[in-house]
Amino acid sequence: MKRCLLFVALLISASTLQARGTGDLGVLIERASSSVQIVETSNNTSLKRVAGLGDLSHASVVYSRDARYAYVFGRDGGLSKVDLLDGSIAARRLQSGNSIGGAISQDGRLIAVSNYDPGGVRVFDAHSLEPVADIPATYGDDRARSKVIGLVDAPDDRFVFALWDAGEIWVLDMSDRDRPQVTRYRNIGRQPYDALITGDGRYYIAGLFGEDGMALLDLWNPDRGVRRILSGYGRGEQKLPVYKMPHLEGWAVAGNYAFVPAIGRHEVLLIDMQNWTEAGRIAVHGQPIFVMARPDGRQVWVNFALPDNDTIEVIDTQSLEIVHRLRPGKGVLHMEFEPRGEEVWLSVRDENRVEVYDTRSFERKAAIPASKPSGIFFTARAHRIGL
Amino acid sequence: MKAWTWLAPRLMSGLVLAAPVFAADLPTAERARELQNLLIQDCGSCHGLKMRGGLGPGLLPEQLSSRSPEYLTTIILYGKPGSAMPAWRGLLTPSEARWIAQRLLEGPDS
Fold first, then answer.
1. What is the model's pTM?
2. d(CA A234, CA A247)
3. What is the DSSP code (8-state) at residue B89?
C-alpha cells in the first residue's frame, strides 16, 4: 500500500514538473497585483501566474546561471526566488523597507539589492537568500544615507552602483565574501538617476539628473577615476518637465555608437564610443524612457514618458532615421527582445495586455492578457554581464 | 462609475467641502478614472503604487498630515526645483491637481 502511494505521488509530481529547458522562458511583472506571469517565447504563451510577491511598483528580475530561478526585486524590499519550472516561490525575504533593483554576481553565488530605505546595498546568498554583507551608503559629515540606484554586476565578482543623494559611484568587490571591499568615487555629478555597464563589463556609465551629462568609470583602469562625458548637452535651454525617469539599463549599442535617452528632451543622443563624445542627436516623438537595441544592433526601439507613452518609434541604426512608429496603446512601459531579436514583447499597462511584434514586418503576432504589466525579462539575461 | 461610488458619499457627508473645490470643477466620471489611474500608476512610479515612497517621499495621509491641500496642489502643479518632482501643469488643470491632492490626504484606500 505504502509503495503504491509513493508511486502515485511520483506520478503526480512528474506530471506537474515535466522535463523542459528554460531557455525560452521569461517573467512578466504585474505591478499592481503582486504577481508575475511565467511566459514562453517559442509559441508566445503564458504558462503560469505566481502571486504573493508584494509591492511590485518598480520590480526587476535577474536570473540564476542555470536559468531556472528568477530573482524578483520588489519595491517593498521583498526579494523572491521564483522557480520557473513549477511556479513555486523557492525562497523569499523582506530585506529592506524600500528597494529599487538588484544584480547577480559573476559566479552566480551572490545576489545584491540596491535599497532606497535604508539607503545602501545588501548582499545575499543566491541559494538560500541568507544575508552575506550589508553596505550602508553613508556620506557627508552627518553620515546620512543615500538612496542607491544603477546597481550592476561586473567581472571579478564586483558590483557597481551609484548614490542618488551623495553624487558618488561605489565599486563593491565581493571576491572574498567575508571581506567586502568598497572603492568610492566622489563628486561624480549631481543626482545620478540610473546607470549601465557595457556588455563587455568594462565601462560603467551613470546618467545625471541634476545636471547635463553622464559619469564614466573605466573598470579596466579604475585608478583614472570617474570622468564626465557629454557635459552640457542641453545647457542654456529650458528642460521639459520629466514625468518619468529614463532607464539606461537596456541601453543600445550599434557599431561604434551608443544610443541613450536625453533627459528632459525629445531626443535620443548618439555617443561615439571611441572617444565618448556626442556624435549626434535624433529627434523623436517624446521624452525617451527605454532606448533598446535589437540584439543584432540593426534597430533601436524607443518608448516615451507621459503624455506620449502610447507610442513606440523604431530607429534604423544605419540611416539613423525613424523607420516605423507603433501605437500599441496607453502606458507602453517596457520592451524585451527575444534572444535573437526576431520578435519583441511590449507591455501595454493601461490596456492590461502584453503584445508581441515581429521586428521585421512590425506585424502583431500575439497579445497576452496581463494585469497592469510593467517589466518583461527573458532568461537569456542569465548569461549576460550587467543584466 | 467607480469614482462616483467613492465621491458621492463624501460629497454628501460634506468631506469634500473642506476644500473649496466647486461641483463645477470636479472631473467627469471618466476623467476621474483617468486621474485615479495617473495617481496610482504614474505618481506611483516614484512614490510607490501604495504611496509608501520610492525615489520620491511617501505620500500616505499620516505623512502628509501637516500639509494643506493648497500646498500639495502647488507642488503638483509647479514641481519642486532641485528634486525629481516635475511640474504637472502641462498635463493637469489646477482643479485636477486639487482633486489629486485631496485624494492623497484621504488616503489610497478611501
1. 0.88
2. 19
3. T
Strands of A35-40's sheet, edge to edge? A45-50, A35-40, A25-30, A373-378
Instruction: Give B109→chain A minimum CA distance, Å.
Output: 14
Q: What is the CATH number of the domain that holds A158?
A: 2.140.10.20
Closest Cα in chain B, distance from residue A128 (Å): 27
CA distances from A353 to A34, A37, A290, B65 (A): 16, 12, 19, 37
Look up the CATH number of domain B2-106: 1.10.760.10
> Quick one: cell of A281?
542627436
Three-state DSSP class for A355?
A: strand
In chain B, which residues touch A (CB < 8 A)? 37-38, 40-42, 44-46, 48-50, 52-55, 79, 82, 84, 86-88, 90-91
For A143-155, the pLDDT digits (tens) are: 999 999 999 999 9
Q: How far is it, in rounded angstroms, from Cα B14 to Cα A307?
A: 34
Task: Give the count of beta carbons closer than 10 Å to the beta carbon of residue B25.
Answer: 13
Residue A15 covered by a domain: no
* Structural domain count of chain A: 2
Query: A243–B84: do the CB atoms touch at under 8 Å?
Result: no
User: Does ipTM come in above 0.85?
Assistant: no
Cα-atom radius of gyration of chain A, to the nearest Å? 21
